[in-house]
UniProtKB/TrEMBL annotation:
Its main location: membrane. InterPro entries: MFS, MFS_dom, MFS_trans_sf, MFS_Transporters. GO terms for molecular function: transmembrane transporter activity. It is a multi-pass membrane protein. It comes from the Bacteria. The chain crosses the membrane at residues 20-42, 54-71, 83-102, 108-133, 145-164, 176-196, 230-251, 263-283, 295-313, 319-345, 357-378, 384-407. The keyword Lipid metabolism does not apply. One of its GO terms (cellular component) is plasma membrane. This is MFS transporter. It is found in: Cell membrane. Residues 17-411 form the Major facilitator superfamily (MFS) profile domain. Keywords: Cell membrane, Membrane, Transmembrane, Transmembrane helix, Transport. It comes from Comamonas suwonensis.
Length: 418
């Protein structure tokens, strides 16, 4: 009987640990996209150009990319709890700097910190959930960790723009007040992780002394064998397009929506971004049983269609077209990401899976950076409407080529190995 009580107490403690790690993941990434609905307010307050907004977004994404490339192995080396705690603190510092920012360079510093921190929080929290699930003391099955972590990650990213949009719409001094909730919740996350009691197996790994070597910070990007090169190129094209389309809404939406629909305040923009993220996560669960080539083709076709509707709506200014376009963007984004991640899993082997996944994610992040730099530059010279039109046409052409090639490639149509 005492042993049974001890086991139940241990299981309850591990269950609580998993909940707190999940909570830290949600609040840790909440500030990442919070700023998106506020870009128009920053533009008005500081007289920023469209290229300044795009640069702010790109440098935030650059922080995430640098963390992915150079720091992604930290949780495996020094333990997920230490890494999660350190980068929760970093995101608090970055959020505080963003809150108190007095000009564009100071805001860039804060956003870059948040970008670095959000990537490492995602990686370390996912590692932590994996460790806790492997202990067998939680109800979380190891094979479902990736799905749960992905959902919590999207939930945190989605809540951010909702909070930012509501603050920008209704609160006084929105460029400061919008950051209060992430700061308060982030402090709670720091306390929770600092006081976290891990199972013995996880605790041993977390308490190992750091044995970092310079090789641990080298990017680990790999490419598949020659026969899979074309399939991998097509696969990597999917996050490039999907991240780019989302990046347009996350960075430029406050600038072009006010020309498209009559009520385009921060709360509308924040809701649109949150819908794209949350619906994207939901559709990945629903479409998981769909044949890979059909899933990929349908997702890309939806993104192509939504961008065509965006071009039309720049002239028409229809609320219905806007809602429909955002919905198709969300569905297409989710199906493209599902098809891409599934295909990476099929192409990669045990010896190169991590490196190929890093390559895939790096190309996706570049898709949210390079096009946005071009959009900002074009908007400065010829206006935001021309810039959005050029971007949408680029997506329609590239997406059509990728979608048709993806659905016809024999590697995508092959049945997965048992």
């Amino acid at each position: 009987m005492p042993q049974s009580n001890t086991w139940q107490a241990s299981a309850a403690a591990m269950q609580a640990s998993a909940w707190w790690v999940g909570f830290a993941l949600v609040v840790g990434v909440m500030g990442a996209a919070l700023i998106s609905p506020l870009y128009a307010l920053y533009q008005q307050a500081w007289q920023l150009r469209a290229s300044d907004i795009s640069m702010l977004y790109v440098l935030y994404m650059c922080g995430g990319l640098c963390a992915l490339l150079f720091l992604g192995r930290l949780p495996d080396r020094i333990g997920f709890q230490r890494v999660l705690l350190c980068f929760l603190l970093l995101t608090l510092v970055g959020t505080l700097i963003s809150m108190l920012a007095w000009n564009l360079p100071s805001l860039i510093v804060g956003r870059f910190m948040v970008g670095v921190a959000s990537s490492l929080i995602t990686i370390s929290a996912t590692t932590g959930l994996t460790v806790l699930a492997a202990s067998g003391s939680t109800r979380l099955r190891p094979q479902r960790v990736a799905m749960v972590a992905s959902f919590l990650n999207v939930l945190g990213f989605g809540l951010g723009p909702l909070i930012g949009g509501m603050a920008g719409q209704w609160l006084p001094q929105p460029l400061m007040m919008a950051y209060v909730a992430p700061l308060v919740l982030g402090c709670a996350g720091v306390v929770a992780i600092a006081l976290l009691k891990l199972p013995q197996s996880a605790s041993q790994a977390a308490q190992l002394p750091g044995r970092l070597q310079w090789q641990d910070c080298q990017p680990r990007l790999t490419w598949p064998q020659r026969e899979d090169s074309l399939a991998f190129i097509l696969t990597c094209g999917y996050p490039f397009v999907a991240f780019g389309v989302f990046g347009l809404y996350a960075s430029m939406a406050p600038l072009f929506l006010q020309q498209m629909i009559p009520w385009s305040g921060p709360v509308v923009i924040g809701t649109a971004i949150a819908v794209i993220l949350l619906v994207s996560a939901f559709i990945q669960l629903v479409a998981a049983r769909l044949a890979l080539h059909r899933c990929g083709f349908t997702g890309m076709a939806l993104l192509v269609t939504s961008n065509g509707m965006l071009v039309v709506n720049l002239q028409m200014g229809s609320i219905l077209l806007f809602v429909l376009g955002v919905s198709l963007t969300a569905l297409g984004h989710g199906m493209c990401m599902l098809a891409g991640m599934t295909m990476v899993g099929r192409i990669a082997g045990p010896d190169n899976r991590a490196g190929m996944l890093s390559t895939y994610q790096t190309i996706g992040l570049l898709g949210s950076m390079l096009p946005m730099m071009a959009v900002g530059w074009i908007a400065d010279h010829w206006g935001i409407q021309v810039a959005v039109t050029v971007f949408a046409c680029f997506v329609m052409v590239l997406g059509s080529v990728l979608g048709l090639a993806f659905v016809r490639h024999p590697r995508m149509r092959a049945k997965p190995e048992a």
